Amino acid sequence: MMLEPSIDALQEKINSKYTLVTLSARRARQMQETKQVLIENPKSHKYVGLALEEIQADKLYYEAAEE
Q1: pTM beyond cutoff 0.85
Q2: Which UniProt keywords apply (predicted)?
């Protein structure tokens, strides 16, 4: 079974696997509370999958804080 979107495609958007996991988990919890999804016609029925689809669609992104 192939996961969509692929980890390779997601790492082109966010290069750190740790950041990718943290961002998608936070967004999944937020969606669970609000039931609001930023993309139309999602393929996934699970919140983490929806968050990853939002990252792939450039609806959810991460900006590094300046040090």
Answers
A1: yes
A2: DNA-directed RNA polymerase, Nucleotidyltransferase, Transcription, Transferase
